[in-house]
Specification:
Layout: E1 13-17, H1 29-37, E2 42-49, E3 55-57, H2 88-91, H3 98-103, H4 119-123, H5 130-140, E4 144-148, H6 157-171, E5 177-181, H7 184-193, E6 198-203, H8 211-218, E7 222-225, H9 232-240, E8 244-245, H10 253-262, E9 266-269, H11 272-281
Parallel strand pairs: 1-2, 1-9, 2-4, 4-5, 5-6, 6-7, 7-8
Antiparallel strand pairs: 2-3
Bound molecules: SN-glycerol-3-phosphate and magnesium ion.
């Protein structure tokens, strides 16, 4: 039986995109902790395979934007630093927090929303194993939307899907996890291997033709379109067929309210702390 959505009745839930990425380096344990502490209902993260087959949390295909790889002379020759070319032991050499202090990507350091007390923790962040973050989610009963990044250029679908399912089984986190992907072959395979795992189809630029038939054929519980191609009519149509709709990435409070009123179960946001505050003030 599929349990993930049982805890999400109706609409209005807030999902911290890549963790609370406006106040901590994305896809790190700190971003996950901040997501939970700020009151988000769930968190979203991206998973990739290292060269030696370990599942790690990381968004980009290459390591440059969110680690210090470019500053490490010994690794310079490995440019363009594709994560899938590095073993987990090598990934452990990298710092995944200092870039956030350097770039201040959301201006939250300049604004004081990230305080000086947070700096040592930010500096200490590494690329996490999926396994340790699943265990954190389980300990705190904090559900997650796990996005499997497309590995088709490197590992086959079977390897990444098998590895993810193994981790969920070993940690006992199947009911806590919704798996999404832009690679819909992964979702099809997942359902064949374990129909109890909730799945969601991600799309960015356009909707597949014959959308409802398409999603029913994939047997997904949810549809995750980019918010820019979504309106209330689409949400109504899908929810009336029993398909949940969750949007990304919604950083504007008015847009979030609009989608919730239309029946979206959750929205993924870079600013979970602000949307939670808005919910409390409503
Ligand atoms: O799952 C929603 C969103 O995370 C998809 O885009 O590029 O942020 O992983 P991206
Ligand atoms: Mg993602």
């Amino acid at each position: 039986m599929n349990l993930f959505f049982e805890r999400f009745s109706g609409s209005g839930y807030i999902c911290a995109h890549r963790g609370a990425r406006s106040i901590a380096p994305e896809n790190t344990v700190l971003a996950l902790e901040q997501a939970r502490l700020c009151g988000a209902d769930l968190w979203e993260t991206d998973v990739r395979l290292s060269a030696d087959g370990e599942l790690v949390l990381f968004h980009d295909q290459t390591l440059e934007r969110t680690t210090d790889v470019a500053a490490l002379e010994t690794l310079y020759s490995r440019k363009p630093w594709k994560l899938s070319d590095f073993s987990f032991e090598e990934l452990c050499l990298l710092n995944a927090g200092s870039w956030f202090l350097r770039d201040d990507p959301f201006g939250t350091i300049a604004s004081g929303e990230v305080g000086g007390v947070d700096v040592p923790k930010i500096k200490a962040q590494k690329i996490p194993l999926l396994n340790e973050t699943l265990r954190y989610s389980l300990r705190h009963d904090f559900p997650l939307n796990l996005e499997i990044k497309d590995q088709s250029a490197t590992a086959g679908a079977q390897l990444v899907v098998d590895s993810v399912l193994k981790q969920l089984r070993e940690t006992g986190t199947e009911p806590l996890v919704l798996i999404s992907s832009f690679n819909h072959d992964y979702l099809r395979l997942l359902k064949q291997l374990n129909p109890n795992i909730a799945t969601a189809a991600l799309v960015e630029d356009s909707h597949p033709e014959n959308l409802i038939d398409y999603l029913q054929d994939l047997a997904v519980e949810a549809y995750h379109p980019d918010q820019l191609i979504t309106d209330a009519d689409l949400i109504n149509e899908l929810t009336s067929k029993g398909i949940r709709v969750n949007l990304w990435t919604v950083n504007d409070i008015q847009r979030a309210r609009h989608f919730f009123a239309a029946g979206a179960t959750f929205i993924c946001t870079d600013w979970p702390q602000h949307l939670v505050a808005d919910r409390h003030s409503a």
